[in-house]
Design a protein that fits this description.
By secondary structure, the protein is α/β, with parallel strands linked by helices. Helices cover 40% and strands 14% of the residues. It folds into two domains: 193 residues, 3-Layer(aba) Sandwich (Rossmann fold); 197 residues, Rossmann fold. It binds ligand SAJ.
Length: 420
């Protein structure tokens, strides 16, 4: 791999991972073009702006754009390196939807001349990197992965991202990385590229092991959160405080139980385990059950709120938080958001005041409901008969339950913020 400063990199997908990666590469001297199908994202980046909330990203993007090292476009340009960071949602049957990866491959294929490195960063089911390479080679039979018949090579690797939303700019640089190549040489080339900005250890393996490593990390967390969520249901049934229970058990030197909540959200932990389940359904029993336990949690919270509102003619409900976790604006796969929608449907006579300090307007499906409005925190709580805390945002955690008058209201605290 040529020196980073003489390398042109196209980053396909300017979302929560692609844009930070593009900015970091540009800051380290590469010539970076970000590619996105969304024109407004492309325009925002070209103005040096970030179309979502992520600490410290704004400065990097505006700096890189000003220096002329980062620009954005809606079409894929010729480049030395292509980094694919597009979504991999799952379909109804929980199998991964690879259509965004396929579209990225279709954009890259015509630009290749031989010698390029193509890296898939999107979280992917086992075999997706191979699938992407085959897609490219199907439209470019003049190229090859191994030089067979003297054809020019393309190098393909998988390098899953593992950064935590909210800490992306730090973790991109400090996390260890796994690089899985379809060939050893492809893995080595990808390692050299990541070495330009990554201070962590870079470990080489094959593409499928790298794909599985990422899925396994998130499944590990999902299974452990499911354990905490199951304990919360058991504790409710026994009439004990689950947070006290976990705090006590965690004093054991080899026990570290996670925190229960209203369910598991986000586009990673709530999704990735299904890629393993749909790939090897007969053996992924614990992983499947954990998903089911976590996915069942929103309905259990809903039942508690419905019970708390029973008997009120026109219950006023304050629902605190819509994001999938604290202190971010990301509402994707958010259990809080699902609970608010279900609540409004289940209790059409109730007025639901949704509080989300990180957004300015409700997502479409909530805005479409007559009995849901976006309300500031204090006003929503002051007016409420029932308060349901769904996300442990700092603003809620810092509030004083006495000043909020919670003693006079029914409270469903899914995060244990106001206990004791
Ligand atoms: N949650 C709980 N209880 C807990 C911890 C989390 O209910 O004790 C919930 C959160 O509220 C949230 C969900 O789980 O709804 C996921 O949040 P998270 O902070 O655990 O993880 P993500 O989805 O933001 O990021 C994860 C990270 N993976 C791991 O920690 C193994 C991150 O490192 C990955 O890069 C990211 O997924 C990804 O992109 O895959």
């Amino acid at each position: 791999m040529a020196h980073i400063e003489s390398t042109t990199i196209a980053v396909i997908g300017l979302g929560y991972i692609g844009l930070p990666t593009a900015a970091v590469l540009a800051m380290h001297g590469a010539d970076v073009v970000g590619v996105d199908v969304n024109r407004s994202t492309v325009d925002a980046v070209n103005r040096g702006e970030v179309p979502f909330v992520e600490p410290d990203l704004g400065l990097s993007v505006s700096g890189a754009v000003k220096q002329g090292r980062l620009r954005a476009d809606t079409t894929t340009p010729p480049a030395d390196v292509y980094i694919v960071a597009v979504p991999t949602p799952f379909a109804e049957d929980h199998a991964a939807d690879l259509s965004y990866i396929e579209a990225a491959a279709d954009g890259i294929a015509p630009q290749l001349t031989g010698g390029e490195l193509v890296i898939l960063e999107s979280t992917s089911p086992p075999g997706a990197t191979q699938h992407m390479a085959e897609r490219i080679l199907a439209s470019r039979p003049d190229l090859s992965l191994d030089g067979e018949g003297g054809k020019p090579l393309i190098h393909v690797a998988h390098c899953p991202e593992r950064v935590l939303p909210g800490r992306v700019m730090i973790e991109l640089v400090t996390n260890d990385r796994i690089v899985g190549g379809l060939t050893v040489h492809a893995a080595e080339l990808a390692r050299d590229l990541y070495r330009s900005f990554c201070q962590g250890q870079i470990m080489l393996t094959d593409a499928m092991t790298a794909e599985m490593a990422k899925l396994v990390e998130n499944s590990f967390r999902d299974v452990n959160i499911a354990f905490a969520n199951e304990l919360s249901v058991i504790s409710d049934t026994l009439g004990i405080d689950v947070w006290e229970l976990i705090e006590l058990a965690n004093h054991h030197p080899r026990v570290n139980i996670l925190q229960p909540g209203p369910g598991v959200g986000g586009h990673c932990i709530a999704v990735d385990p299904w890629f393993i389940v749909s790939s090897v359904p007969e053996h992924a029993r614990l992983i499947r059950t954990a998903r089911e336990v976590n996915d069942a949690k929103p309905e259990l919270v809903l039942a508690k709120v419905v019970e708390a509102a029973a008997g009120l003619e026109r219950p006023r409900i304050a629902a605190l938080g819509l994001a999938f976790k604290p202190d971010i604006d990301d509402l994707r796969e958010s259990p809080a958001r699902r609970i608010v929608a279900r609540l409004a449907q289940e209790l059409p006579h109730a007025a639901v005041a949704a509080v989300e300090p990180h957004i300015h307007e409700l997502p479409a499906e909530l805005a479409a409901l007559d009995n849901v409005t976006l309300v500031p925190f204090e006003a929503a709580v002051a007016d409420a008969d029932v308060v349901v805390l769904l996300v442990d945002h700092q603003q809620f955690k810092k509030s004083d339950p006495v000043a909020l008058g919670l003693a006079d209201k029914a409270v469903v605290d899914t995060r244990g913020v106001w206990r004791g």
